[in-house]
């Protein structure tokens, strides 16, 4: 399709002939021909323009320079980017390190916080335990103190009641030898003012004596036949009287002549009851025992011995617990019945006399004692208080001689004396004082007798005033 004729247009400059000549050899078979250089005849015109070539070279140089510049810029950029990347890497590493450090610090801080919280919790726990221990110790120290204070107040209250009783029912006398507290209850008039029961009954005794003399005269003959037997009995009686001379209570002379003395013992039986009974037996006198309820065999044997030896067995409550006995009439009845049944079942004896714990006018019950007195009146039970004491139940610790003097001073101003003493585990001094007391009373002419239901009672609150 293409013609073999090729036209070459050569335009060269002087300075570039070699270059132009070097470019004249063009391959005819060059198939890379621009369609724009194709003539209308179908011929391809290869125009070599040196100037254009030189321009292309310059252009190439410039392009190369630009490329170099571009490469340099690229290199610089690369270097800068590299440096920047290094810096960024360094910064990143630094940041990572800082982050790690921060994390470590944060973790360490968290660990420290956790440790601190654990330590604080443990300390709080320890402090709570310490507080609880201190509170327990304080309570253990305060509680006994409070109990002691309460008990002290209770004891003080009871002591005040005892003192009130002593104040209400006692009189004070002063002797020449010593200043002793003497108890004399105004239930009986002194001897110089009293109309004794024996005095009241004297005319009757005189009539009986006259009747007896008449009968004796009528039977004179029979009396003569029995004279030998009576003489023997008299001799035996005189012999016994001589043996018991110092303990005879039938003397009509002495400072206590014709005075009646009733020795009473409260709160038994105890370990000393047997000793008291032995002493009374030695002096051939009788006394009265106001007992409480005890069910052991030894106590039951003592109940029996009191009755069998001719003494009077009186009641003094079963429990001797004031708050229990005087709580109500029902409680009083239960206590009374329990003791009465115990004594009857043990001895076969029916007790008929009673002594109120604390006396018939004690202040234990806020409502007074009238309802309990009324109960005894309905039960036909006679209650006995006292008008002489030996002092063994007071707060004062007396010697044997002082106990004896307390009784004798009281007996001296009374025609009839009911002496209050106690038979408990702690009253050995009372037992030891009995021989001296009994001998003084007997030698002074006093009659020592046991109480019974027929003896006119000495009562702080008289039974007949309670309806």
Number of helices: 13
Portion of residues within helices: 40-55%
Point out poorly predicted stretches. Answer: 1-50, 170-232, 236-250
Query: Which structural class best describes the helix and strand composition?
Result: alpha/beta
User: What is the radius of gyration computed over CA atoms, rounded to a whole number of angstroms?
Assistant: 69 Å
Question: CATH top level of the domain at 197-465?
Answer: Alpha Beta
Principal-axes geometry comes out as: rod-shaped
The CA-CA distance between the termini, in Å, is 175 Å
Please render the helix and strand layout as text.
Blueprint: E1 7-11, H1 17-22, E2 45-49, H2 50-168, H3 197-200, H4 202-218, H5 220-225, H6 227-243, E3 260-268, H7 273-282, E4 288-291, H8 297-308, E5 312-315, H9 322-325, H10 329-347, E6 353-354, H11 370-378, E7 382-383, E8 388-389, H12 400-412, E9 416-422, H13 428-443, E10 447-448
Parallel strand pairs: 1-2, 3-4, 3-9, 3-10, 4-5, 6-7, 8-9
